[in-house]
Amino acid sequence: MTPRKSGHTLGVTDEAAIELALEQARLAASVGEVPVGAVVIVGDEVVAARHNERETTNDPTAHAEVLALRDAAAASGDWRLEDATLAVTLEPCPMCAGAALSARVARVVFGAYDPKAGAAATLYNLLVDPRFNHNSEVIGGVLEDECGELLSRFFSNHR
Known about the structure:
Layout: H1 14-30, E1 37-42, E2 45-51, H2 54-57, H3 64-76, E3 84-90, H4 94-102, E4 107-112, E5 137-139, H5 144-157
Parallel strand pairs: 3-4, 4-5
Antiparallel strand pairs: 1-2, 1-3
């Protein structure tokens, strides 16, 4: 796959963004969290980088994407993230896809597809549903093997 640059991430390729999200996912695994990482990029700047914290915080909404979007909104001083790319190692679930829609994220880039809860391509296509007042560009399968392997390894070690 040829790395591609978007108009929204200027100097950061989708692959580089997912690599940064993978770093966060590895941090999650190191503390016993499901290894999902997310970054928010505006222009060529990473404005937020987070990983899952549900176990650590006992918060069911502490998914990497939600935490990263919260941090990005705080950093920008605006809940509207219209120029942002959300890059995440696993296809967003319905809650996280909804959060991206609510934040008006321009692009969502993800690694592994999620056949059990994917809401950006697999089970649902919330981010491109024309019935919503906002849609995001969706790019799936970026570094899919690396992202999927990290999750598979984690779950095989925790079963």
